[in-house]
Structure formats: structure tokens, C-alpha cells
Amino acid sequence: MMTNETGKSYGIDGGTTGGDTDDSGLIGTQRGVAQTADRIEDVRSWETHRSGSVLMRGSMIPAQTPDQALLAFPGEESGNADTDGNASAAEDDAALSGRSAGNAAKAAENATKSRDGKDWRHGDPWRVLRIQSEFVEGFDALADLGRALCVFGSARVKENEPEYRQAMRMGELAAQSGIAVITGGGPGIMEAANRGAAEAGGVSVGLGIELPHEEGLNQWVNLGMDFRYFFVRKMMFVKYSSALIVCPGGFGTLDEMFEILTLVQTGKTSPKPVVLFDTQYWKGLFDWVRGPMLDRGLISEDDLNKVQFTDDPEEAVRLAIGGMTK
To answer: What are phi and psi of 274, to 5 degrees?
Structure first.
């Protein structure tokens, strides 16, 4: 939603909605302000559900999770069916083997260790299974996401900085257009985009990474997952994003941006609009790209045409959504 100087509001497609904006300029009508206040209250009271490493909040929590459906006994609709079934199975196993449940658990723990005394779960074969499980859980959680806008940017931007409010606006506009918002799930720019999407009643996705100094997914994520491996996480960004907006950020943001640009350049992923927000921030980097890299023929002019620049959050979203192919 965009507002001109007369106070009249415009949607992404340029249509008028009418009404006044609030002081923040984030909502286009008085009715929208009330609806947003209700949504903010809903967000603050979200319940959290975890299925493996997948996190779901609020309306994203299904009536029955996939693991409950798979483990429930025929005719059982209780969410406790899998718990009861597992408990019974453990008791039956202990009874059949003539061991107590405690001894059975100890035997199972010992069985995980190899003859040289090392825990086999720290070896490469187990690592492969763990990688596989992250792919499976990620694909399962995001399979029905639909069109999605990925917003990259620094975790170090504070709530009182302009970049935070601008990223929040991007998330809001995307959600109002029926587009899911994907971020890295952390603080700063990521939190702002998630917050804008959540408060607008949209799907707010956070794909986090397990790091010692990170506190986990921000509170505005209603569908999320914490990954152990960066490459699995980046695969999810690539596979499920329809367009990208890259806000100012550090090494991680640059890594994600150039990963996507390389895959688009080489045709290893479907074409995706890549919009860089804050032209002054990116100017030095792309002066060098347009200079030595292009002058020496290490990239082509067509490669540079895959990137668009803007300083306007509304235009950033419009360019991103307008260029989506899926």
C-alpha cells in the first residue's frame, strides 16, 4: 500500500483504496489501523508448536501434525496417540526381552557406540542422515508456501533505525498482496520484514541457523525452522523464494546475494528478480563490479541486468512482485 501527498492510498498495482494513513504510514485506512492492532495482539499471544526442527505459531499450527498422523492408531484422533503408542512399544519391548525399561534404555544407548568407544552419531554416516532429515523437514514444511518474497539483510540493525521500518514496510506490502515473506529468522532487518508480514496477517517464514551467539527465531515468525547446515538453509531460500530484496548487510548477506546471482546467472535456478535496497550502500561494490570485473570480461553486461536498485521500499516490493515468474 502506498500513500501520496494527498493522503490517498494506493495498492501495489496502483489502484486506489481511499482513507487516511496513521502516523507511521504503515497502514492505508482507519479500518486497517484497527485490524492491524488486533493482529498485533494476536501475534503477541501466539502459541508455539515444534515438530522436529520445524516451528509453527498461530494459524500456521495444523490441527494434526504429520508425525501425529503417521503414528496415530487407526481411528485415533487424539494428539496423544503417538505418545501412547511409543510408550506401549517400549513397555512391550522391555517385557519381551526380560529387561526393565531402564535397562533397555541403557542397552540402546550402548548400542549407539562403536567398538572403539566413539559415539557413531558423530561420524560421517550419521551426519549424512542428519543432513537428509533437514532437507526432508524443510521440503515438507515449505511445500505449500506458494509465491514468496525473500528479504535479506543485517541482523545488527536496531528497531529505532530507518532501515528497520523500511524492511517492516516491505513485509507488510508483500503480505497484503498475498505473498509469503521469507527471512533468515533472526533480529534486525529479518525481524522487521517478518514483523511487517505477521502484523499484516500474512505468512511470515523464518529459516534460522544454529549459531552460538544467536538466540533463535524472532517472535514474528509463524512458520520457521532452525538449520544446522548453512548449505541446506540456502537451498530452502533458493527453492522457495520467487523474488529477493537485499537490504544492507554484512558477510552473510553478501554470501546469500551472490549465491542467488550465481545460480540465476548459470541457469541452475529459475529466473528471480533481485532488488538491492539502498543504492548508496551498494554503490561502491557495484562500481567495482562494473569496473574491473566487467572491463576484464569476467562477467557480462547481461549479468548486471539481473540486478535492480531502489531507495523506496514500495518500489522494491513492486519490482520484486512484478518480476515473479512463479
So the answer is: -120, 115
